[in-house]
Specification:
Trna Endonuclease, Chain: A, domain 1; 2 domains; five-stranded parallel beta sheet; 298 residues; Rossmann fold
């Protein structure tokens, strides 16, 4: 059985959240404690998959950050979620850079439950992953959730996607923000894969990333623009593109996508849920193949 540790100096709220979490994730043991010192004692005496900690613990306002650093240094595979009654962008970034995997408002209880479930899923599916790149992926995923303006969101999404896609064998050679006089491409992958599935799609693969602060979804115009970027190249060189949108896609995007299903060019739409599945996947190569096959045979 997996274990979750909750740390909050307010005993009543800590115990209440422990009970609610236990009801929502019954296959994990949920433990509560009320100080940094007791938390360290729990952590050193037994393995915890996920730790949820308040950022303001009794000793000083820096206690939360110090505890995060302690956990990630001693137990790097443990997922850490910071929560606070007074969320702030600077605090959130500081938490993420201290090693925290997520940062959330205490008031958003339903989201806190969902974030904890995500952390549990990640800890189970990636038990054997502990590389620098995997830690970078989780840091970028955490930062993606707290960025405010479109430029920051877009830049962080590009970094996250670069880190994810370079884990595919043969896709480690990629460049970002490629600009010419007529177009801009977010990510270009030099396809050096020896896998026959990927080799047939050409020597380069293109990726478009969209994460608008306004919650706007890419539609017909964005699809046509990306299609033209792929179509302007020799089809021997480029037949596959991934269009990534955290906000999902408008119906007009799907309509345009259906129009090209018989063509040689393949465009694979990827939303927020797909990104999370890729982060958690033990075999991202196979999962991406499934996404491509769904576009081929839908």
């Amino acid at each position: 059985m997996g274990k979750i540790l909750i740390i909050d100096d307010k005993k009543d709220s800590c115990d209440w959240f422990r009970d609610e979490l236990q009801d929502n994730i019954p296959n994990f043991e949920v433990v509560s404690c009320y100080s940094k010192e007791k938390a360290k004692s729990h952590l050193t005496s037994g393995k915890f998959d996920v730790v949820i900690t308040d950022m303001r613990l009794p000793s000083s306002k820096e206690d939360g950050y110090e505890l995060i650093k302690f956990i990630k240094t001693r137990f790097p595979k443990t997922q850490v979620i910071a929560y606070t009654a007074k969320p702030d962008l600077k605090v959130g970034l500081k938490c993420i850079r201290a090693g925290c995997n997520d940062y959330i408002d205490k008031v958003e209880f339903e989201e806190l439950i969902n974030v904890t479930k995500d952390a549990v899923e990640y800890s189970q599916s990636n038990a054997d992953k502990d590389s620098l790149n995997e830690r970078l992926i989780m840091e970028e995923w955490g930062e993606l959730k707290i960025k405010k303006n479109s430029q920051e969101k877009g830049s962080t999404l590009e970094n996250l996607c670069s880190s994810l896609f370079k884990t595919i064998p043969g896709w480690g050679n990629l460049i970002t923000n490629v600009k010419s006089r007529t177009e801009e491409i977010d990510i270009i992958i030099k396809n050096e894969s020896v896998d026959e599935t990927w080799r047939k799609y050409g020597t380069i693969i293109q990726i478009e990333c969209k994460y608008w602060a306004s919650k706007k979804k890419p539609g017909k115009n964005e699809f046509i623009s990306f299609y033209n970027k792929l179509n302007s190249r020799n089809k021997i060189d480029c037949r596959l593109g991934f269009f990534i949108s955290i906000n999902g896609f408008a119906n007009t995007f799907s309509i345009e996508l259906d129009k090209i299903y018989k063509e040689e060019i393949i465009i694979v739409p990827i939303n927020k849920d797909h990104i999370w599945k890729l982060i958690c996947a033990n075999n991202r190569n196979d999962l991406l193949k499934e996404m491509v096959f769904k576009q081929l045979f839908k």
